[in-house]
TrEMBL record:
E.C. designation(s): 3.5.3.4
Pathway: Nitrogen metabolism; (S)-allantoin degradation; (S)-ureidoglycolate from allantoate (aminidohydrolase route): step 1/1
Catalytic activity: allantoate + H2O = (S)-ureidoglycolate + urea
GO BP term (any one): allantoin catabolic process
Signal peptide range in chain numbering: none
Lineage: superkingdom: Bacteria
Membrane-spanning parts: none
Gene: alc
Family: Belongs to the allantoicase family.
Protein's name according to its UniProt entry: Probable allantoicase
InterPro entries: Allantoicase (IPR005164), Allantoicase_dom (IPR015908), Galactose-bd-like_sf (IPR008979)
GO molecular function term, any single one: allantoicase activity
Top EC category: hydrolase
Sorted UniProt keywords: Hydrolase, Purine metabolism
């Protein structure tokens, strides 16, 4: 597993925002965190020149750098950064660096302090996904991209593990499988069309592409995805959402759970699913678990998986300490 398998904490889809940039003359800063891949159409000119799907500053005639600040949609531990210069060939910045900080509340950009360098000034290549691994283990809420001296960047991806603030959660009723709460995908059988991270992403899926979809199986097996829960808890309600999946929803699904080193226990027996439907199933038996597994039969796509329940005392202690240990 590489850091690219972690969700993009900065994505607009997850609530990220580019809160400030010192310059955006040629292309607006908001493009930096669009979830979609960059696109380019030749000879598409506006009043300021060729239209780029990215952030582009003017040619600098003084000073030494341009900057943009991004508020992460999901605060967390940064595992790696991708500075994508797609389609910027004669106008990309030759160097860039990334800093991060952690802030409480809702500060304005000029109130942010305590910046820590997570990617030192490094050379960039044009029309390239420039990837940088990050070893810092602190929880951050904002990042600052600096480009030297100017130019264009198509996308900024900040891959990492979300770490939720326990002060804003109800431990007696929470989604134990939510990405934003610290749950994470452990493994899956197939991710041909889209990432299984989409299954546990915040909010509803706006289109089919924001769910998890597998290739068509040509054997007698079935597809599945396993995940580590936000912390040890008891699942009481299962939500299987096939919204937007009409001709390619699974025919059936089942859900099981387990503790870290224990055997898998069935929570939901194999149930028939309907296309484009939000299914809710109550769990009658109470099982403490740290892991869960969704099996779909035989294949297909699902928009969201929600596992509603409560944390055990052990789970609450771990959840809070995980947050405290990662504060700068």
């Amino acid at each position: 597993m590489t850091f690219h398998d972690n969700p993009d904490l900065a994505s607009r889809r997850f609530g990220g925002s580019v809160v400030w940039a010192n310059d955006e003359l040629f292309a607006e800063r908001e493009n930096l965190i669009k979830a979609s891949e960059p696109v380019f159409q030749t000879y598409t000119f506006g009043h300021k020149g060729q239209v780029y799907d990215g952030w582009e500053t003017r040619r600098r005639r003084g000073g030494d750098a341009d900057q943009a600040i991004v508020r992460l949609g999901m605060p967390g531990v940064i595992k790696g950064v991708v500075i994508d210069t797609a389609f910027f060939t004669g106008n990309y910045p030759p160097y860039a660096s990334v800093e991060a900080c952690s802030a409480e509340g809702y500060p304005s950009p000029d109130e942010l302090t305590g910046w820590t360098t997570v990617v030192p000034r490094s050379p960039l290549a044009g029309d390239t996904k420039n990837a940088f691994e990050v070893t810092d283990t602190q929880r951050y809420t904002h990042v600052r991209l600096t480009i030297y001296p100017d130019g264009g960047v198509a996308r900024l991806r900040v891959h990492g593990s979300p770490v939720a603030d326990p002060n804003f959660l109800d431990f007696d009723h929470m989604d134990l499988a939510a990405l934003a709460n610290g749950a994470e995908i452990a493994d899956c059988s197939n991710k041909f069309y889209s990432s299984p991270n989409n299954l546990i992403a915040p909010g509803p899926a706006a289109v089919m592409g924001e769910g998890w979809e597998t290739a068509r199986r040509r054997d007698d097996g079935n597809d599945w995805v396993s995940l580590r829960l936000a912390a040890k808890g008891v699942i009481r309600l299962i939500e299987l959402d096939t919204t937007h999946f009409k001709g390619n929803a699974p025919g059936w699904a089942s859900v099981s759970c387990a503790e870290a080193s224990g055997e898998w226990t069935g929570l939901l027996s194999r149930q028939r699913l309907q296309p484009d439907t939000r299914h809710l199933f109550r769990v009658t038996e109470q099982h403490e678990a740290t892991q869960a597994r969704l099996d779909v039969f035989p294949d297909g796509g699902m928009a969201r998986l929600r596992l509603w329940g409560s944390l055990t005392d052990e789970g609450r202690t771990l959840f809070v300490s995980r947050w405290q240990d990662r504060l700068p």
